[in-house]
């Protein structure tokens, strides 16, 4: 079954939410207006995995979510309801965890080494490990672990294995000859030395690791899907399910990790049914476009999220937000976001990606042995720090396109500027990176293996540099406005924010990627869309922002905590606003409990890598920050303190003051918070592309980075809210209703609607007349089997109308006025409501009769006339509007 993709709904599958559980929610998805259920990875993963990206076995559907039988039942049920099924694919890596025997291709590699039947599956630098795979997992040196009896030989099972607590490793053929039943000491060490792997102390990872991994995660070993046999083995089951009609589309995780993303997508598209949609999790930097030669439908929507945020944030607040943040910075801190980003990149390259730098250095030294190795290494560090995007695309043996070459040239220029003393070495890296170690600038004449390996691995390393330094370091350090610190986002956008960014994005994608995904929340976002909406609204109230910040700084100074951390704390608490209309119980509850806040802040502080870290962290510092946050959560409201205020210590008094200011800011901006949330939702649902709803986010959802955003969803409550006037699920359902969203289908045009009012964000989507006719024909054709000859006559009539353009059913087409939908949202909502000018705002709709999707009101717009928003009848969703043009 092939269902047109108009909207998707993401399910996170795991042992506590299985395929059967998801199947039970399909009727709700149908009511909501969803066209496709979108599943997290379904292949067998590490037991207990809550995400599925740690694949162990490509030949089985994960038994913890129900296995193949449950998946087929889920897909069949979806198709019976007229829903499609999309599945997430993880081509880049597999799990390398205990027990290692759970990953059979990896087990074969560990047992057979370079001669293993699966050696070509994995990207291992064998020369760096003296022919062995480096495995730095030990809690101490190998000698000490042997002496302590932690490493043993176990012959009790089907095959002898080396055991280390929960870990197990195979024994190479022929290496047990002459070995005693239970070897210890030197005998055990000799046996281990004869294996194809090297067990090592975990702190030696930087020098021992010689396999490509996912980012800096040792437990995820990269897979070489560029090898045809590996592609076939890792995709056989998914493609079998696809051709059996159970899977209708795919989402590809982290394509930038692959040796050749374009080649992979071309191969996958070739193996799929014609026109199967494939989306890629590609993070685009500002000004970067998705490569046009990729065989895909578009991205998974982070770029749309960034464009929507840029349209809604109040750029007029930028001076105050920046001035406040500058006061939070300590001596020696970077005072410019670009400088802070460069610092974060350097830290990650020099501390987190050492193994990757070492591999690149080995390859470069092999090509240029005449250059000093230490200086080559330093030049490579500069080239990585200068990475401007997640990936420059080069395939050895093919001409590099101008866009990719420009990215490399930009990085080389930045590296030279940063280290002019390394110009010779940096310039030497360019031909190596282009796989032209002895050639000119335009032709490939030498694809020598070391240069080719350097070129591909450099590109594969740029992605981890960007992700770990920007998303997972800078975004936990730079807190001017944390709503901007989002995957694919740009904190620097604040000074040039506005609808123009959204319109530019939308016009480009309407033409180039009409089926790209749009989204506001995912399993990877740093904050849910409604936490961001609350912060965007609060930021527009600069007086309240300043007051909350000053109260937070006073508390930080008294508690001995850095102001930067306090700025993050108060924004995190403020983002958990309950001010979302029907979801607001009017209480003084701050909306987040102490444990969730503790867990988030611990992760945030460690990811920042300033005063603490995941390794060798400072628990005393962490506890100081967590203590400050708990003070704010536990502090009684000022108006309830009474005599307790006199006896409270200074910190408690300051915490109570901050708490009350946060609550006051949220109360004063409750309408702006809801309006921002509703605005971003209606914009996302009608932008060019396919809107994706992350599980539960059709209701105002207040969550932080994983695992907080992967909590269970109350679907019964969501379904109940479909009937609650003014509720967000009801808004989503009304926007996704077929007669409303049809004009916004892929292929529709996009026209910005420029208002004289600076707070209006509006656009019009129009379905060309020919497409309307084709849709009517298709609808009629689908009804033939049920309605018999009478419908056949209708089809014939429609066919004649298409040819002659005389049927009255196509009167709108004859007059060149296609069906259209107009969408109106509000930016800078806090200031917009204070200015009270929205009623006088005008929107220049196309001429015709328009029906308001929420109120049912009909308005007639003539040529040259603008619609005044104040003339629209009140409705349950306030200041956001969706109008549908009728024939």
Walk me through this protein's architecture:
- The protein has 887 residues and is α/β, with parallel strands linked by helices.
- Helices cover 44% and strands 13% of the residues.
- The protein is built from 34 helices and 26 strands.
- Strands 16-15-14-5-2-1-18-17 form an eight-stranded parallel beta sheet.
- Helix 10 runs antiparallel to helix 18, helix 14 (373-385) packs across helix 15 and helix 19 (529-539) packs across helix 26 (670-686).
- The model is unreliable at 439-447, 581-588 and 780-818 (pLDDT under 50).
* Radius of gyration of CA atoms, rounded to a whole number: 29 Å
CA-based shape: globular
Helix content: 40-55%
Query: What order do the strands of the largest sheet run in, or round the barrel if closed?
Result: 16-15-14-5-2-1-18-17
Number of strands: 26
Mean pLDDT: 91
Please give the alpha-carbon distance between the first and last residues.
Answer: 32 Å
Class from helix and strand fractions: alpha/beta
Residue windows where pLDDT falls under 50 for at least 5 positions: 439-447, 581-588, 780-818
Largest beta-sheet characterization: 8 strands, parallel
Strand content: 5-15%
Number of helices: 34
Give keywords.
alpha/beta, 44% helix, 887 residues, six-stranded antiparallel beta sheet
List the helices and strands and how they pair.
Elements: E1 8-11, H1 19-24, H2 26-32, E2 36-39, E3 43-45, E4 55-61, H3 67-80, E5 84-89, E6 93-95, H4 104-112, E7 133-138, H5 142-147, E8 151-154, E9 161-164, E10 167-170, H6 185-193, E11 197-201, H7 205-208, E12 213-214, E13 217-222, H8 228-243, E14 249-252, H9 261-271, E15 278-280, E16 298-299, H10 302-312, H11 318-328, H12 337-351, H13 354-367, H14 373-385, H15 402-418, H16 423-433, H17 449-471, H18 499-512, E17 517-518, H19 529-539, H20 542-559, H21 563-575, H22 594-608, H23 619-634, H24 644-647, H25 650-668, H26 670-686, E18 690-694, H27 715-721, H28 728-736, H29 738-741, E19 749-752, E20 760-766, H30 769-782, H31 784-787, H32 789-804, H33 811-814, E21 820-826, H34 829-835, E22 842-843, E23 848-852, E24 858-861, E25 867-868, E26 881-886
Parallel strand pairs: 1-2, 1-18, 2-5, 5-14, 7-11, 14-15, 15-16, 17-18
Antiparallel strand pairs: 3-4, 6-13, 8-9, 9-10, 12-13, 19-20, 20-21, 21-26, 22-25, 23-24, 23-26
Helix pairs in contact: 10-18, 10-26, 11-20, 12-14, 12-17, 13-14, 13-17, 14-15, 14-16, 15-16, 19-21, 19-26, 20-21, 20-25, 21-23, 22-23, 23-25, 26-28, 26-34, 30-32
């Amino acid at each position: 079954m092939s269902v047109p993709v108009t909207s998707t709904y993401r399910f996170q599958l795991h042992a506590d939410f299985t395929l059967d559980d998801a199947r039970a929610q399909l009727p709700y998805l149908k009511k909501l207006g969803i066209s496709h259920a979108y599943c997290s990875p379904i292949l067998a993963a590490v037991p207990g995995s809550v995400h599925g990206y740690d694949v162990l076995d490509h030949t089985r559907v994960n038994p913890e979510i129900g296995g193949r039988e449950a998946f087929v039942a889920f897909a069949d049920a979806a198709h019976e309801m007229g829903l499609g099924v999309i599945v997430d694919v993880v081509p880049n890596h597999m799990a390398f965890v205990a027990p290692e025997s759970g990953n059979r291709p990896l087990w074969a590699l560990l047992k057979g080494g370079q001669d293993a039947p699966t050696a070509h599956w994995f990207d291992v630098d064998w020369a760096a490990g003296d022919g062995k795979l480096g495995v730095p997992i030990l809690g101490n040196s190998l000698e000490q672990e042997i002496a302590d009896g932690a490493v043993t030989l176990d012959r009790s099972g089907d095959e002898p294995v080396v055991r280390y607590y929960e870990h197990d490793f195979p024994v190479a053929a022929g290496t047990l000859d002459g070995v005693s039943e239970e070897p210890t000491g030197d005998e055990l060490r000799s046996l281990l030395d004869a294996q194809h792997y090297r067990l090592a102390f975990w702190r030696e990872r930087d020098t021992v690791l010689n396999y490509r991994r996912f980012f800096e995660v040792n437990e995820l070993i990269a897979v070489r899907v560029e090898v045809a046999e590996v592609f076939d083995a890792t995709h056989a089951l998914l493609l079998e399910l696809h051709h059996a009609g159970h899977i209708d589309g795919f989402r590809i995780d982290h394509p930038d990790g692959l040796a050749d993303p374009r080649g992979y997508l071309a191969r996958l598209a070739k193996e799929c049914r014609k026109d199967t949609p494939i989306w890629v999790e590609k993070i685009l930097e500002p000004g970067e476009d998705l490569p046009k030669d990729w065989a895909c439908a578009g991205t998974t929507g982070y770029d749309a999220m960034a464009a929507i945020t840029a349209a809604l944030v109040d750029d007029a607040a930028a001076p105050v937000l920046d001035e406040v943040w500058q006061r939070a910075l300590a001596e020696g801190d970077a005072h410019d976001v670009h400088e802070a980003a460069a610092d974060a990149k350097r830290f990650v390259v020099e501390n987190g990606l050492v193994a990757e730098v070492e591999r690149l250095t080995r390859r470069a030294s092999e090509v240029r042995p005449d250059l000093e190795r230490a200086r080559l290494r330093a030049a490579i560090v500069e080239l990585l720090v200068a990475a401007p995007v997640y990936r420059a695309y080069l395939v050895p043996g093919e001409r590099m396109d101008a866009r990719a070459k420009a990215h490399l040239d930009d990085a080389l220029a930045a590296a030279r500027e940063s280290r002019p003393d390394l110009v010779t070495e940096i310039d030497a890296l360019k031909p190596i990176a282009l796989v032209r170690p002895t050639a000119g600038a335009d032709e490939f004449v030498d694809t020598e293996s070391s240069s080719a390996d350097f070129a591909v691995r450099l590109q594969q390393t740029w992605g981890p540099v960007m992700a770990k330094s920007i998303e997972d370091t800078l975004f936990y350090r730079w807190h001017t406005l944390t709503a901007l610190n989002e995957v694919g986002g740009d904190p620097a956008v604040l000074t040039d924010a506005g609808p123009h960014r959204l319109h530019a994005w939308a016009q480009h994608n309407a033409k180039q990627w009409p089926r790209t995904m749009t989204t506001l929340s995912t399993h990877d976002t740093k904050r849910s869309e409604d936490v961001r909406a609350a912060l965007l609204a609060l930021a527009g109230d600069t007086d309240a922002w300043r007051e909350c910040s000053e109260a937070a700084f006073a508390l930080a100074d008294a508690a001995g905590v850095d102001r930067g951390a306090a700025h993050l704390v108060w924004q995190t608490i403020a983002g958990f606003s309950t001010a979302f209309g029907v979801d607001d119980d009017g209480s003084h509850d701050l909306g987040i409990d102490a444990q969730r806040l503790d867990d988030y802040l611990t992760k945030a502080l460690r990811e920042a890598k300033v005063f603490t870290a995941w390794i060798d962290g400072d628990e005393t510092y962490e506890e100081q920050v967590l203590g400050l946050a708990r003070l704010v959560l536990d502090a009684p409201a000022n108006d309830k303190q009474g005599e307790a205020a006199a006896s409270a210590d200074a910190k408690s008094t300051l915490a109570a003051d901050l708490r009350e200011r946060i609550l006051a800011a949220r109360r004063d901006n409750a309408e702006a918070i809801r309006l921002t949330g509703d605005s971003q939702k209606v914009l996302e649902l009608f932008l060019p592309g396919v809107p994706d709803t992350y599980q539960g986010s059709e209701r105002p959802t207040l969550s932080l980075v994983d695992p907080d955003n992967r909590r269970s969803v109350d679907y019964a409550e969501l379904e109940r809210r479909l009937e609650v006037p003014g509720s967000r699920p009801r808004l989503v359902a009304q926007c996704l209703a077929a007669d409303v969203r049809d004009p916004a289908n892929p292929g529709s045009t996009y026209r910005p609607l420029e208002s004289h009012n600076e707070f209006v964000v509006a656009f019009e989507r129009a379905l060309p007349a020919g497409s309307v006719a084709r849709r009517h024909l298709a609808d009629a054709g689908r009804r033939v089997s049920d309605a018999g000859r009478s419908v056949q006559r209708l089809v014939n009539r429609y066919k004649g109308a298409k040819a002659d353009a005389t049927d009255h059913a196509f009167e709108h087409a004859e007059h060149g006025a296609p069906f259209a939908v107009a969408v109106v949202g509000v930016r800078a909502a806090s200031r917009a409501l204070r200015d009270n000018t929205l009623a006088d705002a005008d929107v220049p709709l196309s001429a015709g009769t328009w029906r308001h999707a929420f109120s049912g009101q009909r308005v007639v717009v003539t040529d040259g006339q603008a619609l005044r928003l104040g003339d629209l009848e009140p409705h349950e969703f306030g200041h956001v509007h969706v109008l549908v043009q009728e024939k």
